[in-house]
Specification:
By secondary structure, this protein is mainly beta. It has 5 helices and 14 strands. Strands 6-5-4-3-8-1-14 form a 7-stranded mixed beta sheet. Strands 9, 10, 11, 12 and 13 form a 5-stranded antiparallel beta sheet that branches. A hairpin with a 5-residue loop joins strand 5 and strand 6. The longest helix has 11 residues. The relative contact order is 0.26.
């Protein structure tokens, strides 16, 4: 296994907080670029899906439109790394599950890993969380009624992370993946896909750096219920 000792994932906020109605924007999304050029997240109010690729920040909204952000927009939850591939392999005609099994055979289940899949997809199925206003609902309720979009024969890039089970709650154990098309017209949180042909690049990470929204009163006062959010993450993801 080849791994740079300074590789790390940097995360602002927690997915568990997002699940438990802590959706206020507590950090400028652009500030995360100080710690990486590759990642994902959402905006304040659980507004859509963020894809960070090659240092550019893209936002998929609930109408299915993609916009490039300037960086001053606020996020309650996002994660980034400075992506440098340490393992690569090509694949053809792979289902979502088949490709994930191949990835899992190449990485440690006890480490965070960054995952990039660039190629042509026979099918891409995504969802986009619609923006919420206070009082925020539970995220699982949003997920049950979120817009979904599908595309066929589309070229683009999957951006995301594998999280060890030990850190479920801070993030989503297993794979958390977002997608953006090469023409920047289609994207979102990946629900399912079929890869026609592509290149998979992986990067195991040596550190997990968690940044908390220490100035947000709601986050500081509302204790997160681990049992509840674990079930919600499993359903929402």
């Amino acid at each position: 296994m080849v791994m740079k000792t300074k590789n790390y994932i940097y995360q602002h906020g927690t997915l568990g907080g997002l699940m438990q109605e802590l959706m206020d924007g507590t950090e400028e999304i652009g500030k995360l670029l100080d710690n990486g050029d590759f990642g994902l997240g959402t905006l304040a109010g659980s507004n859509g899906e963020i894809i960070i690729l090659d240092g550019n920040i893209y936002h998929a909204d609930e109408a299915g439109a993609i916009h490039q952000l300037v960086g001053t927009e606020l996020t309650p939850y996002a994660a980034v790394t400075s992506f440098t591939s340490t393992q690569q392999f090509s694949a053809k005609k792979q289902s979502d599950d088949e490709l994930k099994e191949r990835i899992l055979a190449k990485i440690s289940k006890n480490l965070f890993s960054a995952v990039q899949v660039k190629g042509t997809f026979k099918k891409m199925h995504v969802r986009v969380a619609p923006k919420q206003e206070k009082p925020y609902p539970r995220f699982v309720e949003i997920a049950r009624n979120q817009p979904e979009f599908q595309a066929e024969n589309i070229a683009g890039t999957i951006v995301g992370f594998f999280t060890p089970k030990l850190f479920h709650g801070a993030a989503a154990a297993g794979f958390h993946l977002h997608f953006i098309s090469d023409d920047h017209r289609f994207g979102g949180h990946v629900l399912d896909f079929e890869l026609a042909e592509g290149m998979i690049e992986l990067m195991e990470l040596a550190e997990f750096r968690q940044h908390f929204p220490v100035d947000n009163v709601d986050y500081l006062k509302n204790e997160i219920n681990l049992d509840e959010i674990s079930k919600d993450i499993a359903e929402a993801e």
